[in-house]
Design goal:
The chain is elongated. Helix 2 (43-55) packs antiparallel against helix 4 (99-121). Strand 2 (70-80) and strand 3 (83-94) form a beta hairpin. The chain is 34% helix and 33% strand. The protein has a 4-stranded antiparallel β-sheet, covered by helices on one side. It has 4 helices and 4 strands, in the order βαααββαβ. The chain has one domain: 2-Layer Sandwich (Alpha-Beta Plaits), CATH 3.30.70.640. The two termini are 32 Å apart.
Length: 144
């Protein structure tokens, strides 16, 4: 039997979750992002908006998640040597946590970066031998 968790007996409380992840990219791709030379536009700005849009729809893509009224969300990036690190923080006042929303937000943000720079990442055969998304995890979760 499949069912959504019954949270009717719980009281609303302030919830917060932070998820992080990384995308490994070629040096030329990192430079293009840093210098604002990505053909589709500002990869980090588009990824930030995409991640926030996605996290608000988590219940639409993960079947047994509750729809949650998000009260705050932010996604930040750090451009490092050979990779970009993303962090997604989500807040809500609700009966269940927001860790799935944070995971969806960070994942979609990283996927959006990949989509925007894939023309730089492809090899001669059209594959992505070095590009990868890794380390996606919930790094903090709070309930007050």
């Amino acid at each position: 039997m499949t069912r959504m968790a019954d949270i009717s007996g719980k009281k609303d409380s302030k919830r917060m979750a932070i998820a992080r992840g990384e995308i490994v990219l070629k040096k030329v791709t990192i430079e293009a992002i840093r210098d604002g030379r990505v053909e589709k536009g500002n990869a980090l700005t588009v990824a930030e908006v995409a991640g926030i849009m996605a996290l608000k729809k988590t219940h639409e893509v993960i079947p047994l998640c509750h729809p949650i009224q998000i009260t705050g969300a932010e996604i930040s990036f750090e451009v490092l040597k050979g990779k970009i690190s993303a962090v997604c923080k989500v807040e809500a006042n609700y009966r269940t946590g927001v860790e799935m929303e944070a995971l969806v937000g960070v994942t979609v943000a990283l996927l959006t970066i990949w989509d925007m720079v894939k023309y730089l990442e492809k090899d001669r055969t059209g594959n992505y031998p070095t590009t990868r998304i890794e380390g996606i995890a919930v790094v903090e979760k709070r309930k007050a």
